[in-house]
Design goal:
Elements: H1 2-26, H2 32-61
Helix pairs in contact: 1-2
Length: 69
């Protein structure tokens, strides 16, 4: 359980940093605030897609989601 937490703690801030850095390079006319806002939305979208995917996997693999282990 700690390994996914550790990977998530590295992946999402890393993705945010890479997105912010890439946007500042690709769009120098944009302000820092614009780049941070777009990066935040992109990371949130990736997190939502991954959470939805893991939920679908859980629902499909369990016959009864509430009581199945």
């Amino acid at each position: 359980m700690l390994l996914p937490l550790a990977w998530g703690s590295l992946f999402f801030p890393g993705l945010f940093g890479v997105c912010t850095w890439g946007l500042r390079r690709a769009r120098p006319a944009w302000t820092r605030h614009d780049c941070v806002m777009i990066s935040t939305r992109l990371v949130s979208s990736v997190q939502a897609v991954l959470a939805t995917g893991s939920g679908i996997i859980v629902i499909r693999s369990c016959s009864d989601v509430i009581t199945d282990s």
